[in-house]
Structure formats: structure tokens, C-alpha cells
């Protein structure tokens, strides 16, 4: 029986009230834990389904290509002769012949080839070899117009059907679709037009009955899937085509599709089990680099980079928002660079004019949002620079793929700053998979040890040589020069500190932006947000920011997004894995490898890599052919390791807590292989490896988070930017 301080018996009702309160508290905690565990379950379910997709594709894809590489089909001779006489192409590139043969054999197939790989030939050649009409569904009118022009030059009769098509032209097209002696071979249409035009669908039915609907081509086929990065609702309509025209073969083309996107596309198009021809994503002439930068000198760094490494050479700079785009192009002009901006808010005529000037080299650099993209076929683009990271790895791959289409060396350079990740996630969180996509991109950007081409290959489920790309990315460059020294940091105890700060804030009913969190952790900013028992970490701000970013990616922390009337704000909260940790379900140790150049710049061995500071971007002449020819000999990487048991200065329970729940290395590794999601959606991470290392940025005093959060808040005041970004 309880008693009060005065020794009097506590009435039963008071005791029951106490019990009730305590039970309610426990219930609230339990509900919160269940919520987090459910979230984790969704993450794991997603990951499992993704792995199953990959396994499924591996088992199906294998032998398909070899079977269709042969020259014994009835059309083989004519195919080779038309390839040479009409297209003036001597021989096929890999997978082209197999894809042409498969579609000529009336089989449904998906062709995944890198940008500039030659996908168009795989339906244009069959179109002239087949009787009847090939319908090409393509997402952009400008892209269709380009193809129309090039088909005209090759003497292939092609038409485009859209809202501008005149009555006479429409009549001609519809007649040609059913007339056995018509010469029209290719008909281009947008998915929107196809979905809307009952007349076209009805005419297709007539053509089908007359055995004249030869083939359905779906360009940028990844747009069918909501898992993809460019989902277009009207692509879903294409699902009925197989039901309506079962004997007409479908060929879908894309440069970017992860295994689960491919499986999803097959389901949507009702062509499950179709052949999948998947070429390597490797573009040997592209060199990938990531440069850390501070906001202050970013544009100046880009200008210096262009003026020193790429004087007078043609390039593209991608920006996250229209405002960035305007600002960058304007500033570049002050550095005497002929730059022009390109975004969705410009009038179509203006956009065409800028594009033309760029094609003619009157404009050297196009500074663009994602609005500048599909169908860009300028061969001599020597560099694609990203002013901010892309919203997904798929976007990044597509955007960088516009470089070096002539096969000569070209550079893909990403200027990275953590704050950009928060800008991107705040813009993307309303999209399905939006935050996962941003984190995959963040992961790619942060990775300073694995081959970048390997990371891309892994993302797209492509086979990859573990030995790396041979100095065609900065990470392989670093390895070969022996300068990838790193320090191993156990972020487990640091996470305990961060968790305490977040807990404290939640008791105060304060939401923590990344900036507030960093400040409270580093003993700065609002005093009431600091936690007495949390000592200032021993690391500099950049190291701490890096650790927070890694904890976000690994699911120990999570972003939550809130709308205000003017902005969308990202707040940091504990992630699902924090509950698993405190229940001893996963190891308390979280090991990260962070380069000495960040953790301890004075100890870091100098890399041959350039940094972004204005003075140091003047680097080797890259006009030369592949850098491998001029690069120094490979040496065994000399890795300097320093182990740090805890970055926290306080004696808090961290180490004892760790040992209580310590699990095997295996479990730890497995846990780190899982990606973080916005609302439990699954996605396979860019890299399944958990070791990260990072290189020095321009200024140690820069606060990346500060910039990022500010931008997030400002962005909301300019809704048009979010619109453009999505556009
Ligand atoms: N077998 C070949 N040999 C030589 N050149 C080829 C071959 N196949 C295609 N090409 C050329 O390669 C260039 C790129 O082809 P295409 O535009 O079809 O690429 P793509 O895969 O559609 O690229 P994107 O995804 O960027 O649209 C074109 O100039 C085309 O003529």
C-alpha cells in the first residue's frame, strides 16, 4: 500500500489515478514504438521485394540476347542491307541486332540502353522492314519533331499526330494506316493524345484488323511506372494496348530503369515475361566527379572550372530551381562565359531560340532546370556540371548522359553541398518515392571510396567489375594515387547524443531543423535546446554534418516535412532504427569511414584531386583524350586508418550500452545495407556498401545545413520553383 510523505494512507482513487497515468504513458510509448517498427517493417518488405525483382530478372534475362543475335532470320539479309543503305550504319552495336530480331519476330521486349546508345534504330529499322505502320509513343513534341526531321533526311516517310495536325494531314494519316499501298512507316504520338483520341484508337483497330498495325513503340517507357523518376499518368493508358491489339508486338525503350521499375512496367503494359535486353550502363568516355563546395564561392568555382578546364567548349549546367538557373547564368556572364538560361517559365519560342544558339555554339553553356532534357542530341557536349545534386540517381544519370555523345572524353561534375539535399527532399517529398530517390542521390554524392560508375551500375542492377573504372571517376583516381586516407568513427555514441537532443526538444515541443540540431549539438544557437549531459563533439562541423547525413541515409534519423503558408520545412526526428537499437535489436556501434581531409585536415595526405576553391580549380588539361592515358601509374592504395571509439566527450553510458547490445559484425553490416525511406516505401540503395569516406570541402567554416534550411524556407515563398522542379 502506498503512503504519502505525512504517513497517511493514499486513497485508492489517487493510487488508481497514478496507475492510470503511468499505464497511459507506457501505452503512448508503446504505440510510438509500434509505429516505428511498422515503418521499419515496410522498409524491409520493400527491400525484399526489390531483391526478388532482381533475382527474377536475372533468371529470365540471361540467354535471350544470344538467341536473337543470329543472322538466320528470313529478314536478316534485307535488314543488313537497309542498315547500310538507308541508315549508313556499317554494323550493329551490342543488343541492337537482338532487339531488332526479337521485335521482327513479333515478340514483346524492353530495351534498356544508355543515353546515346542507339535505341531509335531498334524500331526505325524494323519499321521500314515491316508492312504497315509503326506507332511511336513519345513523351515530348520537340523530341518527335527532331526524329521527324532525321527520318525525313533518311527518306523514311514519317508523320506526327498532335493537336496541331491539320484536318487534311489527319485524313492522310488515317488513310495511310489502312491503305496497303501507303508509304507512311512511322507515326509519332504523345501518350496524352493517344489516350484522348478515340478516332485514333478506332483507326488503329481498323489497321490492326487489316494486319497493318505493325508495332507499338513506347519511348521512355520508365514513365509508365510510379517507381520510376518521371512517372506520367497518361502512360498508364498504354496498359490497354496489349489487350486491344494482342498480336501487335510492343517494344519499350529507356535508358534508366531499375529492376523493380522494369518488372512494374511489364505489369502495367501487360507484357509480363517479355524479353528484356539490357545493355551495360557504362559509358567509357564519361568521367564522373563530385566536388565539395561552400555556397559563397560556388558559382565562381564553376566559372573558373569552365574557363580553365573547358574554355570555349560546349556544356550544360543543371540547377535545382529556376531562381538558381537565372542567378548562375547571370553570374557566369560576368566571367565572360556565354551562358544562357533554359527553364519551363520561358516562352517556347525563347527556349527554341536558346537551344538553337547552343547547337550552333553561339551560346557556350546552357544553364538549365530539368526542363532541358529529353531529345537533346548535341554530340560535342564536353561537360555536364550539376550546380546542385539531382532529385534522383536516374535523373542524374540521364542528365550526365547528355555529355560526350560523340564518344570523345567528357566530364560529369557534381558540386555537392549537404544543404542541397534538404532543398531537394523538401521539393520531392510529396512524390511517391521522392525522398528515397533524393537519399539515393545523396548517398552517391557522399560516397568517396567506391567507383562512381560501379555505384551507378549497382543502382540500375547492372553487372560491374569490382576493380573499378580505371581512373574514369574521382574515387578511382584517389585510390590509384593512394590518397584515400580515412578515420573510422563510431557514430553509435554520437547518435545517442543526437537522440537525447531530439528527445529534449520534443519535450519542449520544439521541432528541430537540421540547423537547430547541429547548433544544439555543437553548443551553439538557442541555449534551451542544448542538453547539459551532451558534450560538444570532438569533431569539426563538417564531420558532424557528414555523420548526420549518413545517419539519415541509414535510417537512424529521418526527415519530417511540414507545410507553412509560405514554405515547406524539413525537420529531423529519430528514425525507425533508433527503436531497434534501444531494444538491442541492432548493434549500438555504427562505424563510418570519414576521410582525414574532413576529420583532420592537417594530417591528411594531399590528393591529386582538385578542390573547388577558385584558386585550385585550375587543373589538368582535360582536352586530352581519356585521362587514363596521361594519368600516373596505379599504385597500391595506402590507407591510413585511425580508430576512434567515441566522438563524444562525455562519459554517458554509450560504451556500456553498446556492449550490452552488441551484435555480430554481420548483423551490423546487414542493417546498414538497408535504405531509409520517407514513409516506408522501399527502394534499393545506390550502394549496398556501408563504408563511406569524404573529402574536404572549400571552407571548414561553411555551414551547409544553415544554407540548406534557409533555402528550404525561402523556397516555399516561390511556389513556382517547386512547380518548375517537378516540371
Ligand atoms: N550501330 C550504330 N553504329 C553507329 N552509330 C549508331 C549506331 N546506332 C545508332 N547510332 C547513332 O548513335 C546516335 C544516338 O542514337 P539514338 O539517338 O538512337 O540514341 P538513344 O539511345 O535513343 O539516345 P537517348 O536515350 O539519349 O535518346 C545517333 O546519331 C545514331 O545515328
From TrEMBL:
Biased composition (Basic residues): 688-698
Enzyme class: isomerase
Region called Disordered, residue ranges: 602-706
Record-annotated Helicase C-terminal domain positions: 298-446
Primary residence: nucleus
GO cellular component: chromosome; cytoplasm; nucleus
Chemical reaction(s) catalysed: Couples ATP hydrolysis with the unwinding of duplex DNA by translocating in the 3'-5' direction; ATP + H2O = ADP + phosphate + H(+)
Similarity comment: family membership: Belongs to the helicase family. RecQ subfamily.
This protein's name: ATP-dependent DNA helicase
Amino acid at each position: 500500500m502506498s503512503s504519502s510523505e505525512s504517513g497517511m494512507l493514499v486513497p485508492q482513487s489517487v493510487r488508481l489515478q497514478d496507475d492510470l497515468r503511468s499505464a497511459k504513458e507506457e501505452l503512448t510509448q508503446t504505440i510510438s514504438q509500434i509505429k516505428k517498427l511498422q515503418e521499419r517493417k515496410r522498409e524491409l518488405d520493400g527491400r525484399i521485394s526489390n531483391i526478388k525483382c532482381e533475382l527474377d530478372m536475372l533468371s529470365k534475362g540471361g540467354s535471350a540476347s544470344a538467341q536473337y543475335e543470329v543472322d538466320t532470320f528470313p529478314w536478316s539479309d534485307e535488314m543488313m542491307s537497309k542498315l547500310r543503305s538507308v541508315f549508313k550504319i556499317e554494323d550493329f552495336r551490342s543488343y541492337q541486332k537482338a532487339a531488332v530480331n526479337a521485335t521482327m519476330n513479333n515478340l514483346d521486349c524492353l530495351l534498356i540502353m544508355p543515353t546515346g546508345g542507339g535505341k531509335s534504330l531498334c524500331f526505325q529499322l524494323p519499321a521500314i522492314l515491316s508492312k504497315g505502320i509503326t506507332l511511336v509513343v513519345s513523351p515530348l513534341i520537340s523530341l518527335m519533331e527532331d526524329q521527324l526531321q532525321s527520318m525525313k533526311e533518311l527518306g523514311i516517310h514519317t508523320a506526327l499526330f498532335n493537336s496541331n495536325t491539320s484536318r487534311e494531314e489527319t485524313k492522310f494519316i488515317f488513310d495511310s494506316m489502312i491503305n496497303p499501298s501507303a508509304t507512311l512507316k512511322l507515326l509519332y504520338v504523345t501518350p496524352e493524345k493517344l489516350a484522348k483520341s478515340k478516332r485514333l484508337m478506332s483507326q488503329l483497330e481498323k489497321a490492326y484488323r487489316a494486319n497493318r498495325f505493325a508495332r507499338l513503340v513506347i519511348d521512355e517507357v520508365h514513365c509508365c511506372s510510379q517507381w520510376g523518376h518521371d512517372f506520367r499518368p497518361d502512360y498508364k493508358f498504354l496498359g490497354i494496348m496489349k489487350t486491344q491489339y494482342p498480336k501487335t508486338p510492343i517494344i519499350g525503350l529507356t535508358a534508366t530503369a531499375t529492376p523493380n521499375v522494369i518488372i512494374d512496367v511489364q505489369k502495367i503494359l501487360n507484357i509480363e515475361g517479355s524479353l528484356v535486353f539490357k545493355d551495360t550502363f557504362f559509358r567509357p568516355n564519361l568521367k564522373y566527379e563530385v566536388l565539395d563546395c561552400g555556397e559563397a564561392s560556388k558559382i565562381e568555382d564553376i566559372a573558373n572550372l569552365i574557363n580553365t578546364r573547358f574554355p570555349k567548349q560546349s556544356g550544360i549546367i543543371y540547377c535545382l530551381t529556376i531562381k538558381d538557373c537565372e542567378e548562375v547564368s547571370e553570374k557566369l556572364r560576368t566571367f565572360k562565359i556565354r551562358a544562357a538560361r533554359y527553364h519551363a517559365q520561358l516562352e517556347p519560342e525563347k527556349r527554341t531560340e536558346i537551344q538553337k544558339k547552343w547547337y550552333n555554339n553561339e551560346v557556350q553553356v546552357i544553364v538549365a532546370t530539368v526542363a532541358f532534357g529529353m531529345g537533346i542530341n548535341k554530340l560535342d557536349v564536353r561537360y555536364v556540371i550539376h550546380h546542385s545534386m539531382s532529385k534522383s540517381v536516374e535523373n542524374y544519370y540521364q542528365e550526365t548522359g547528355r555529355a560526350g555523345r560523340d564518344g570523345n572524353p567528357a566530364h560529369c561534375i557534381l558540386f555537392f553541398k549537404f544543404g542541397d539535399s534538404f532543398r531537394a527532399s523538401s521539393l520531392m517529398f510529396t512524390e511517391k518515392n521522392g525522398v528515397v530517390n533524393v537519399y539515393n542521390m545523396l548517398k552517391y554524392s557522399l560516397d568517396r571510396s567506391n567507383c562512381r560508375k560501379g555505384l551507378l551500375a549497382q543502382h540500375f542492377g547492372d553487372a560491374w567489375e569490382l576493380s573499378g573504372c580505371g581512373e574514369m571517376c574521382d574515387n578511382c583516381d584517389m585510390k590509384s594515387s593512394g590518397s584515400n586516407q580515412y578515420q573510422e568513427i563510431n557514430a553509435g555514441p554520437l547518435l545517442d547524443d543526437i537522440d537525447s537532443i531530439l528527445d529534449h526538444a520534443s519535450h519542449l515541443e520544439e521541432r528541430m531543423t537540421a540547423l537547430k540540431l547541429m547548433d544544439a549539438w555543437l553548443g551553439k544557437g538557442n541555449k534551451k535546446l542544448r542538453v547539459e549531459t551532451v558534450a560538444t563533439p570532438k569533431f569539426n562541423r563538417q564531420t558532424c554534418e557528414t555523420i548526420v547525413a549518413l545517419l539519415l541515409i541509414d535510417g537512424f534519423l529521418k526527415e519530417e516535412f511540414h507545410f507553412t503558408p509560405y514554405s515547406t520545412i524539413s525537420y529531423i526526428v529519430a528514425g525507425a532504427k533508433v527503436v531497434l537499437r534501444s531494444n538491442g535489436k541492432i548493434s549500438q556501434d555504427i562505424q563510418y569511414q570519414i576521410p582525414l581531409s574532413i576529420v583532420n585536415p592537417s594530417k591528411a595526405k594531399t590528393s591529386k584531386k582538385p578542390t573547388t576553391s577558385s584558386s585550385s580549380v585550375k587543373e589538368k588539361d582535360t582536352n586530352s583524350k581519356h585521362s587514363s592515358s596521361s594519368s600516373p601509374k596505379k599504385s597500391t592504395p595506402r590507407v591510413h586508418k585511425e580508430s576512434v571509439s567515441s566522438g563524444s566527450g562525455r562519459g554517458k553510458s554509450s560504451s556500456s550500452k553498446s556492449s550490452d547490445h552488441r551484435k555480430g559484425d554481420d548483423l551490423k553490416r546487414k542493417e546498414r545495407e538497408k535504405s531509409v525511406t520517407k514513409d516506408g516505401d522501399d527502394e534499393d540503395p545506390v550502394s549496398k556498401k556501408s563504408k563511406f569516406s569524404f573529402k574536404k570541402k572549400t571552407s571548414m567554416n561553411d555551414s551547409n545545413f544553415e544554407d540548406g534550411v534557409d533555402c528550404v524556407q525561402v523556397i516555399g515563398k516561390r511556389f513556382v520553383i517547386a512547380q518548375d522542379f517537378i516540371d
